[in-house]
Input
Amino acid sequence: MTLETLLQPLIYGLQIGVTYILIALGLTLIFSIMNVLNLAHGEFYMLGAFSILYFAGIWHINYILALFISMVVVGLIGVFFERLFFRPARGQIVPTIIVAIGLMWILQTSAQIIFGRQPRGMAEVFHGIVTFFNVNISDSRIVAGLISIALVVGLYYVVYKTRLGRAMQAIAQDREAAALQGVDIDRVGALGFGIGCALAAAAGGIMAPIFFIEATMGIEVLTKSIAIIILGGVGSIPGAAIGGLILGIVESYGHTFLGYPATTFPFLIIILVLLFKRTGLMGRIA
Amino acid sequence: MRKLVILILTAAIIAVMLGGGWACAPKPAPPKTLDIGVASPLTGPKAFLGKQTCNAILMAIDDQNAKGGVTIAGQKYTLNPIQRDTKGDGAVGKSVAEELVFDKKVKVIAGPFMADAIAVQTVTEPNKVLAFFIQFLIPGMTGPDKPYSFAVSFPIPQMTYKCLHYIKNKYPQAKTVFSMEADVPDAPAFAGATQASCQLLGLDYLGFEKVPVETRDFMPIITRVLTHKPDVIDTGNCGGVLGPLATLMIKQMREAGYNGLIFIPAAPPEEVLQQTVPAQSLNKVVSHYINVDGPVVDPKYRDVMNRFRAKYNEEAVDIVPAYHNVMTALFQFLNTQNTMDSTAWMEGFAKYRWHGLMGFESSWIEQVGDGINRRVFQNNWVTEYKNGKPVTDYEAPIPWGLFVKE
Output
């Protein structure tokens, strides 16, 4: 066992974990504001990945610009679906879940028809490898981590430092009271949903040059997102951040030293948290 | 005067006899049709290879018909393909085989894959129909008890041996080999083939790591593999099983800082490899993929691959020349036959030798190191990627040490 064998999984785990945070934050944001567990969240991640494939990979738009465009496009798609599918079912748990599942299948099947079933790769955007203490990390992964951190910081600023964010927090705390205070529930809810989907799309766009893109890639991501928000505490942004890092690192070490059984870790985490601390590490922001 | 009249009459009689003789001479019989069953998965998960297989067989049939078909026992036959879709499924394959054998009365079926091949064989063997199928690593599908079955696919040990032979010659400092095998039933056989090739070539085989087929991030597995510090990483069956995802494995090996040799016995799709792996990372990668413009490639092989590309607007995988090679040989063999008896065909073709596409005399190998019998050697050419470009300029010898030839 060498130092690099011990450090390499940590580096990869941190990078992957930061990107998991993005996806989980989007999910927890939507849940906080709208009380909707968006089971189609993974499909917006998938849409983000395919968007980057086409914008940057095929049409050769600058990667950062393409990422921004992907976030806007998928965010708007999210707003559209919120208006069309989720708003009529708002406040009703079972219909909302059924709508989310239906939307998940629609998006997945449509993607398989439009983009095909075969996994697709795109050319690397950032070339090169950085080596320190015999541990290697590609420039692509470094940039992915940096963009993820920037977006997490940006979301934190929006939620805690802007009027829109205060409105979102108000709705998350007490919907009726927020409405009485003049907060436009429909508009803020739609914006929150769109931002959540945009974050998922960003995560997909960040991962696209590193991994492969396929129409069914959303399911695995959804499972991990749910595990993260349960671990961190449903509705808690700091909790989602910590949960994402923990899952990323634990998974990375698990896959390196245990192999395939590590794929059960998200499920184990859900079970352990529900057994021992149902509110998660940081609970829900009141 | 009288003598003149007799002479003229005799000449006239002879002329009439000769003319009548021509009129009565038997005309050549019109060509009959010899039906060839082409049963392959045209839909479903194996459709990509199934369609290429079908098209390769159809090309061989068209080529033979362009030469006038086959002549058996003095009778000309135009080859008539009867195509059916097995969907890669056993039940459908059996149903297709039954229709071809019992309704269409074919004596040859070509094209099925793994699950459908097993099912087709249950019909062809007892009914003495020659069957040609892709068959990598299921022992018992060929052998003395399955005489009518012929496996068209590459002997796996040949694939591994030729690449390792190249590496040993071009990179003598490379001594150790470690395999990554997709976790499917044929993984130990692939690893075993690499191990046997290493033994023959005096290389150290360090072991293999299984790669779950659901893997989407290969970094953890690569990190474990690199702890063994191999000079060569063998990607085993990953190219064939994981398909495009195997290219991600290669890319991530370089990302992980591995600068050693990578060898790909089962090549992933070339266009995906070029798209996914940066050119500067596609170096010191040795593959079984063939650049048809390489100097060692047989012109007949190049011709088939180029014609396939022009006709079907897609790159042919190695199963195309494999099938074209065997089917053309079969048709050449049938031209030597004086009987329509399929058992005589089977016994004769099993011993047949021919110069096909592969640059050497081909014949059926009755015993192969991995237990799969009645195979035919494919090409011995090896490609190395240099700055992203595949260069096919090496021909390895046939690894007789891995086979027992009848």
In short: The mean pLDDT of chain B is 89. Chain B has 13 helices and 18 strands. Chain B touches chain A at residues 183, 210, 212, 214, 216-217, 219-221, 223-224, 227, 243-245, 247-248, 251, 254-257, 272, 275-276, 278, 280 (CB under 8 Å). The longest strand of chain B covers residues 75-85.
